[in-house]
Amino acid sequence: MIINKREVLIMNYKISPSMLSADFANLDRDLKSVEAGGADWLHVDVMDGHFVPNITIGPDQVKCLRKTIGLPFDVHLMISEPLKYIERFADAGADIITVHVEVEDDTQECIDLIKKSGCKASLVISPDTPIDVLAPFIDDISMILVMGVYPGFGGQKYIPETTERLKGIRAMIGGRDVDLEIDGGVNFETLSTVVEAGANVIVSGSCLFSGDMKENISHFRKIMDGAKK
Ligand code: DX5
Ligand code: ZN
Predict the structure, then answer these.
(1) Which amino acids does the record list as binding substrate (predicted)?
(2) Residues in contact with ligand 1 (CB, 6 Å cut-off)
(3) What is the pLDDT of residues 168-192, one digit of tens each?
(4) Which residue of 67, 119, 169, 206 pairs with 155 in a disulfide if CB–CB is 3.0 to 4.6 A?
């Protein structure tokens, strides 16, 4: 069977709902709906009140979730000192760990520690960071995450300049086996744009958690399959 490039990309499409938009008073119910709704991963947003002006959860909470949720945990660390915490998140059950290139900790050391801890290493860039900073690391990581909003809060509007950044990074990735994830402002209106620009892992919080998760995920898949590349 001959599989063309577009089919390969479709096979690699993943949906990673952001638990930031879940109802934390009914977390078990909401996260079970993510799993039952057919999501591929669970996006776990970790914020320290320092790198970003918001605070969420830590490794102890991730460890609790790991006991009941079977999906791969896609852990997005929005924290100033990732080197201090990478091993704790790995031990808590993270599968993919993503660190910001903007933090002071050495990026290569973060990548090495994530891999040594048994997780897939990923880098994320905020909207004002030039995409070229990723180039030296591209052969050493499994995924690049591009922020479509300034990190810190769910429910923000997609920044249109992100589209060109996605295209540039997809070109930089070339034939490498590196996922390109988009996070922030992805909804029924913006999804086809980010997929057409080359994103294959889609994070979405406020859109997927409003209404029926299963219906929203299947609507997302229809849009992704129909997007032109
Ligand atoms: C923002 C977080 C995102 C956010 C996405 O800092 O990293 O994961 O929750 O939420 P929406 O999809 O509502 O923009
Ligand atoms: Zn995130």
Answers:
(1) 18, 76, 152-155, 183-185, 205-206
(2) 18, 20-21, 43, 45, 76, 149, 151-156, 183-186, 203-207
(3) 999 999 999 999 999 999 999 999 9
(4) 206
